[in-house]
């Protein structure tokens, strides 16, 4: 419920044309990369806008990454048309897991692939 609602969200993330609301502390606790981006000495976000622009990632992949961060599980992928689409999503999610240093998610994606 924390992920689905905006209550208490203190960071906004733009991924393509979509906007996601999240909680900095949750992101930082689950990913050392988010920790450095949000709380490190060279924080890569605008402190007045509290917005992060995520580039080189599809919104659906980022949504799945956020789902994992908040729930420690992969999202249901019933909306994907076939097994090829699911494998493609898992491949993109593996890249995202590597980018944000999320080892458990990487292992889960590798096991599926």
Automatic annotation (TrEMBL):
Q: Give the record's pathway.
A: Protein modification; protein ubiquitination
Please give a single GO biological process term from the UniProt record.
protein ubiquitination
Q: Name one Pfam family in it.
A: BTB
Residue span(s) of domain BTB:
9-78
Record's InterPro entries?
BPM1-6, BTB/POZ_dom, SKP1/BTB/POZ_sf
PANTHER family associated with the record:
BTB DOMAIN-CONTAINING PROTEIN, BTB/POZ AND MATH DOMAIN-CONTAINING PROTEIN 1
Protein name (database record): BTB domain-containing protein
What is the species of this protein?
A: Triticum urartu
């Amino acid at each position: 419920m924390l992920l689905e609602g905006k209550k208490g969200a203190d960071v906004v993330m733009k991924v393509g044309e979509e906007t996601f609301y999240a909680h900095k502390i949750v992101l930082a606790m689950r990913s050392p990369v988010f920790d450095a981006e949000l709380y490190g000495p060279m924080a890569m976000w605008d402190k007045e806008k509290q917005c992060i622009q995520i580039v080189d990632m599809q919104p659906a992949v980022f949504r799945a990454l956020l789902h994992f961060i908040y729930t420690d599980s992969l999202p249901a992928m019933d909306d994907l048309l076939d097994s090829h689409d699911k494998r493609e999503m898992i491949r993109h999610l593996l890249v995202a897991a590597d980018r944000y240093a999320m080892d458990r998610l990487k292992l889960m994606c590798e096991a599926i692939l």
